[in-house]
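Let's do one together. I've listed all components of the complex below, 661 residues spread over two lines.
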Amino acid sequence: MTTPRYKRFLLAVLAWAIALIIFFPILWMALTGFKTEAAAIADPSFVFSPTLESYVAVHARADYLKFALNSVVVAFGSTLLALLIAIPSAYSMAFLPTPRTKGTLLWMLSTKMLPPVGVLMPIYLLFRDTGLLDTLTGLIIVYTLMNLPIVVWMLYTFFKDLPRDILEAGRMDGASTLQEVRHLLLPLTLPGIASTGLLAVILSWNESFWSLNLTSSDAAPLTAYIASFSSPEGLFWAKLSAASTMAIAPILVFGWLTQKQMVRGLTFGAVK
Amino acid sequence: MATLQLKQIVKEFGDTRVIRGIDLDIEDREFVVFVGPSGCGKSTLLRMIAGLESVSSGDILIDGQRMNDIGPAERGLAMVFQSYALYPHMTVEDNMGFSLRLAKVPKEERRVKVREAASILQLEPLLDRKPKALSGGQRQRVAIGRAIVRNPSIFLFDEPLSNLDASLRVQMRIELARLHDELDATMIYVTHDQIEAMTMADKIVVLQGGVIEQVGSPMELYHHPRNRFVAGFIGSPKMNFLDVEVVDAKADGVSVALPGGATCEVPVDGSGQAQGASLTLGIRPEHLELDEQGPLEGEIQVLERLGGQTSLYVRRDDMMMTIMADGDVRHRVHDRVRFGFAPQRAHLFDREGLALSSLHEHPLASLNRRDHKASADEKHANGKHANGE
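Okay, and this is what the predicted structure of the assembly comes out as:
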């Protein structure tokens, strides 16, 4: 069965069109970053003389590297912690289920339906009283908890796809639970674990609600960095764009490099 | 080299009892087959022996030692799974050597042992391959090889052939029988296929609804089924059952009235059976004979010619009977035929489905595979004698 040539052509055009529409705001942001403030608010145009003015200004006002480093530490730290907690939980739910396992999973997911602002007050107070405000540790804890339901849920589905027989064969061969996890479960579900981790990194990187509310300077990640360029003196589109471009650049490159892994993980069960 | 004893084994999943009190003795080097319809508890029982499933009550003894609370690996067993359950990310060699690696056996020794097992199964050329590069039959052999490497005292097989196609299944059946001779180990084999049970077992355990219906050699189950269930389950095509009425019952034979009016005296113990009571007569398709003077009659509905044999499906009133007849039968569909049977081939079952005990034990009833082997060995030895001295 082959698709006719014109159909393939139309499909390609459609795909490109959709991709461009989705990509356009990002492109526009990147372009605006190279404009002067005056050009940024002038009539939209692709034709302008590029300048690094905004980048210089942005750089002069805040230490990009500090924010970026915070983002990296928080995103990867929280992901690592979430995986460490989630792998044993998902293992027990997938392989030693109790009548309450399904309910627990649903309950965990339901916590994602609560608007975070609903628990802002108690968490803020808790953080204030425990001295976690504006610390990397505090942010890592919040992000870990925030991502845990999704991470457990994803790992649970990946683990569940693994034939039970294989683990039982391992047990017959003399594997302890730890050996079972190390030699069989982890290598066999690595694509799934990797894509879960990647997703958690991206979610943490892009998170702004908690980072804006719980950090001010020391632990502020890139989201707070961007936010600092809006308000209160008014919006400076070119600087804001330059800052945003720098904020998303690392995760964009990261996503680019790992997209194969991501897609493979997300379709893990389907194509096995 | 190990014996296995099950004592009043019970397994409950929540409120459901899937195994309801099983007692069984398995001798050293015996090939025992658990057979039964799906859901009879045979796989659960095997998994309990393996240690993959806990025992609700009762004891599992291996060589007289209580194993209930001992982990699967320490029981000295190896299991071959229906799905093979090979480790997909390891080569054949690593698959087979995994248990040794966990036991911290040095690499060189591991290699030797894996090669040894591989040579028994002709797996040497495949040692570097991953499971996905193997055919179904090869994967099956690797799974068996992985069990052999562990040098277990008891091998457990959970429907190992059901994923193979028919011709490969026959081949593997023969291979397994050969392995049993070669390895001299106790083997427990679960299947729903009564042909596998008949061909490989020293001892068949027929299970239904979580209880043992009968334990015995293949020939014993075939010739002396203890009840209607075993009679119907063992043998293919299935045994025919007819409702009959007792004319006269004595300890040395029971006369019954067949449908159609004729009477027939079956040599079974009839003590305790009243005249006029209704019984079920069981007769295997291969024991029914086409006979102009036969006491039974019916119309052929379907005729299956297999070449050497012909199966006739004959309608009698509102029930179908199966007759295995000669391959050269000239009858056609819708012919009316008469047929009969030798009374000593018939079985009688009471209302509860229990067989009335037969007065004559079939000469082969106590025969098992080991007897075949023993006599073959004897012949072999005698032959040597004759030739040598």
